[in-house]
């Protein structure tokens, strides 16, 4: 039998706490917003007050200007209305958090977006047992099983070494993915300068200000094409096939995304080297996480909700789809 809590409500525009008059990742501006992470489908501007990790608040300020609100450390407890809130790591991007909500002995965990794989740019996911677990379902189909990132980075570096007359152009989302790819390239021994599109500069600078080591990053502007032969260049996915990319010498076009598992998506993007690198949990991570947390009920947000709801019910776990609006697969 499904659990029904009067103190937490799911609306198309977000999850609402009536007694605290607070919304979690609302799709429209509200008086009080609890934000799980800085991607624009979860963190929007215009809220009167924001509760988030200090890193997420800094990311929102970088994107939207000064924010009125409070930055919290992981594990710090704050009471809003009659609900105790603490933020614990989600492992998605820098500052990403799960909202742990407790009231009169009941606990709900709103995960936001998350992954279970190691990531040198953010704190690992922390499983929290609860009564209700609100989970994403971006890659909630058994076909999505992400390979180890080390193998994808090794393929990339091998292609660079085998074709030294070509640049390597990697499409990577500006928040989280670009910095993770950079950090993994460093971890795998690439200590040469990396070149970045101007759209990545501000968030890379912020990551470094917040303590993430990225090594030497150089702007591509003003460089002659010949200077980029054999070099690695990172840009937002939207730049892969526009005029900006044509300045590069015969680039090997790559894209880092969980969607690169789907060959048709790679072809549609004109991607020569798909890199299956995701900041979201794959099918095994989603199901393993639910088993580990052992919730009494699961609420499923954006993505392949029906498949994950079906799996939960097969495991005798009550589950339902929330059908939240305004959620995207990634942040470009």
Automatic annotation (TrEMBL):
Domain of life: Bacteria
Regions annotated as coiled coil: none
Domain Metallo-beta-lactamase: 11-173
EC main group: hydrolase
MF terms in GO: exonuclease activity; ligase activity
The entry's keywords: Exonuclease, Hydrolase, Ligase, Nuclease
EC number: 3.1.-.-
Name listed for the protein in its UniProt record: Ligase-associated DNA damage response exonuclease
Source organism: Sphingosinicella xenopeptidilytica
């Amino acid at each position: 039998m499904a659990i029904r809590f009067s103190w937490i409500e799911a609306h198309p525009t977000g999850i609402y706490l009536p007694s605290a008059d607070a919304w979690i990742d609302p799709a429209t501006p509200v008086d009080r917003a609890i934000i799980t992470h800085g991607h624009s489908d979860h963190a929007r501007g215009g809220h009167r007050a924001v509760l988030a990790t200090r890193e997420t608040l800094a990311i929102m300020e970088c994107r939207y200007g000064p924010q009125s609100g409070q930055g919290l450390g992981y594990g710090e407890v704050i009471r809003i209305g009659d609900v105790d809130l603490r933020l614990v790591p989600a492992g998605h991007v820098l500052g990403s958090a799960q909202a742990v909500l407790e009231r009169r002995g009941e606990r709900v965990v709103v995960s936001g977006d998350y992954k279970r794989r190691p990531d040198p740019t953010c704190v690992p996911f922390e499983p929290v047992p609860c009564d209700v677990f609100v989970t994403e379902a971006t890659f909630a189909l058994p076909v999505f099983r992400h390979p180890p990132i080390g193998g994808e980075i090794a393929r990339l570096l091998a292609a660079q070494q085998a074709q030294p007359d070509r640049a390597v152009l990697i499409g990577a989302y500006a928040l989280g993915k670009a910095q993770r790819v950079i950090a993994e390239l460093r971890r795998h021994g690439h200590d040469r300068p990396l070149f970045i599109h101007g759209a990545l500069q501000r968030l890379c600078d912020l990551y470094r200000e917040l303590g993430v080591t990225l090594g030497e990053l150089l702007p591509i502007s003003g460089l002659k094409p010949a200077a980029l032969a054999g070099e690695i260049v990172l840009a937002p996915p939207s730049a892969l096939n526009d005029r900006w990319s044509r300045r590069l010498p015969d680039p090997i076009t790559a894209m880092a995304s969980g969607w690169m598992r789907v060959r048709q998506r790679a072809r549609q993007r004109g991607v020569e080297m798909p890199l299956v690198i995701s900041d979201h949990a794959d099918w095994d991570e989603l199901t393993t996480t639910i088993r580990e947390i052992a919730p009494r009920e699961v609420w499923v947000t954006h993505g392949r909700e029906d498949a994950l709801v079906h799996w939960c019910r097969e495991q005798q776990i009550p589950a339902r789809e929330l059908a939240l609006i305004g959620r995207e697969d990634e942040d470009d």
